[in-house]
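Predict structure. Chain length: 252.
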Amino acid sequence: MSRRILLLLLSISMIAAFVRLGLWQVDRAHYKERLLAHSRQVVSDRKPDVLYAAADAPDQVNEADAYEWTAGSGHFLSLPPIRLDNQIRNGVAGIRVYRVFQPDGAQHAILVELGWRPLPSHLDIPPEPAPPDLTQVRGLLAPPPVGGLKLGPERIVPQKDGSLLLMRITPDKIAAALKLKNGLAPRVLILDTGMKVGYKRDLQVLSGALPPAAHRAYAVQWFGMAIALGVITIVMVRRYWREARKPEGDQG
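Prediction complete.
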């Protein structure tokens, strides 16, 4: 097989791969739009599920079903706070703070987001106050926030004040670090912004994940690369056929 044929097959394969990647991004954009619409409806309706049942729910197969408004009783455990690093809010770097809450009647405890606070320097992380003295909570149950690129093993770094600093919320690993016998629920509870406790927070959906617009932008890039490579391939093939059809000795 000639070198030119191999290059042609390679170009066709790359064009097909670019198109598939573009279609995948379009599909993700549509999925994220449906997810956002569902979760916003949940927040708007605020029809609460009981917290103890929600905390003991198994891992969600359908991500859209993971968003629920919930309310219930229980108490915060006297355990170290959890701090999620590298959290940007309005262009400012900070951390999200979580505490472990044990719902009444539930086997599993659950991580409760108290909100976002700025973090000027990792050399001087301010201590966290004691867990809130709350026995009734309400808010949005959501999947753990999406972390950045996983470039190495997940690290849970103990701080001077006893808190745990990490880059990703992985309930089973956090439960092991805190030595929670019955583990943690697979979802986190974002406290209702109307509850005057903790720090600044939003009932965010897809926190840390790409929004639909970003998926569409990537789709345009992939489709653009497919078109560009397709045009180049067509030009090269036409040039090859013109050269191949020239009579021998024709230099013009």
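Summary: DSSP finds four helices and nine strands in the chain.
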